[in-house]
Design goal:
Layout: H1 4-11, E1 31-35, H2 47-53, E2 57-60, H3 72-83, H4 86-94, E3 97-99, H5 103-106, H6 118-128, E4 145-151, E5 154-160, E6 172-173, E7 176-177, H7 188-199, E8 205-210, H8 228-241, E9 246-250, E10 257-261, E11 270-274, E12 303-309, E13 314-320, E14 326-333
Helix pairs in contact: 1-4, 2-4, 3-6
Length: 335
């Protein structure tokens, strides 16, 4: 493993020496790191262990900054502050970075389709992620997109779902979000796109990402289960699409956990990994029911790391923290 100091030494080279990140990364991608809930003005101690892991890809899974403003210059300034963080800059210089938003980087806490500045906010996020001007997601409504990485048979598809731009409203009573029995999250165009992305995917691994959690049904906060028809529609689509080795990734909660749904659609289980808390988590851990949890509930600073062993046909997820600590691990067979 390369010494971490090597990464920082490279960063201080002149911009003329800085290598350009290519759209296609090397064959047989083996490590993907991901995380969420990142305050741009707070200490960020996890970039060092993330750099030490040397991921082939970094995925933002939401709340990439805490913008929380309808003023677009405020969002730009906060993204600029994040970009100026030296250790994040080190990662950005040598690792491809993609991502999707949640609410705080969207611009409004728990916001949905009524946010008036959503188109401008989306474009600012795309600029932060350095999405090319001619990328298909630039020419349509919403921020959803997909990427295919690898070469030959060892392909990974990353599907980034936009759970904000088209999302219907929710009512909150005594700090509990009530189900919207007929409401939508993705909208018609995104559903059509997603069905095509899953059914036509050539990848051996399909990572499906949303800022809010997919599987949990019991907690009081934002989740796919607040829109029960949308949640069931998504699970049905994944099950019938034929997409190989689907895994759900999420953020938002300021905790981390590994979950597994087993039913007639998923006899071998559908896993979700929530990694949430790059800069802050719950101040104290409290019990929260979750019938799908198969790990501990983790309330420490954390990020996720996926490691792929193509020869063994094994995908291993870890929830990691400061100094490389491993808080949870789950292996999944690549079908």
């Amino acid at each position: 493993m390369k010494n971490k100091l090597f990464f920082f030494a490279l960063v201080v080279l002149s911009n003329s020496c800085k290598p350009k990140v290519q759209e296609e990364i090397q064959p047989d991608i083996t490590k993907i790191a991901f995380g969420s809930c990142n305050r741009q003005d707070a200490p960020q101690p996890l970039w060092q262990p993330i750099l030490a892991d040397q991921p082939d890809l970094w995925i933002w899974t939401g709340d990439n900054i805490y913008g929380d403003s309808p003023i677009m210059d405020t969002l730009r300034a906060k993204y600029a502050r994040q970009n100026s963080h030296p250790e994040y800059a080190a990662l950005k210089a040598y690792t491809p970075i993609i991502g999707i938003w949640d609410d705080h980087d969207y611009g409004i806490n728990d916001g949905g389709k009524a946010f008036a500045q959503k188109k401008e906010s989306r474009d600012i996020m795309f600029d932060f992620l350095e999405v090319p001007a001619d990328a298909p997601e630039r020419s349509r409504e919403g921020a959803y997109s997909s990427r295919l990485f690898g070469q030959g048979e060892n392909l990974i598809k990353i599907i980034l779902l936009d759970a904000r731009y088209f999302r219907d409203t929710l009512q909150r009573v005594e700090r509990v979000y009530l189900p919207n029995e007929t409401g939508e999250i993705l909208g018609e165009a995104q559903w059509t796109w997603l069905a095509k992305e899953l059914k036509e995917s050539p990848a051996k691994i399909n990572l499906i990402i949303s800022g809010i959690q997919f599987l949990p049904t019991e907690h009081a906060y934002e989740k796919w289960a607040n829109f029960p028809l949308e949640r069931e529609k998504l699970l049905d689509l994944i099950a019938t699409s034929g997409a190989k080795t689907p895994v759900l990734l999420s953020g938002d909660r300021h905790i981390a956990e590994v979950m597994k749904l087993t039913d007639n659609r998923f006899p071998n289980g559908l896993y979700e990994i929530t990694a949430s808390g790059l800069t802050h988590t719950w101040s104290g851990i409290a019990e929260e029911p979750n019938q799908f949890r198969v790990s501990e509930l983790i309330a420490k600073l954390n990020y996720g790391l996926a490691t792929i062993d193509w020869e063994k046909g094994e995908l291993t997820f870890q929830v990691k923290g400061e100094d490389g600590a491993v808080y949870a691990a789950q292996s999944i067979s690549i079908k």
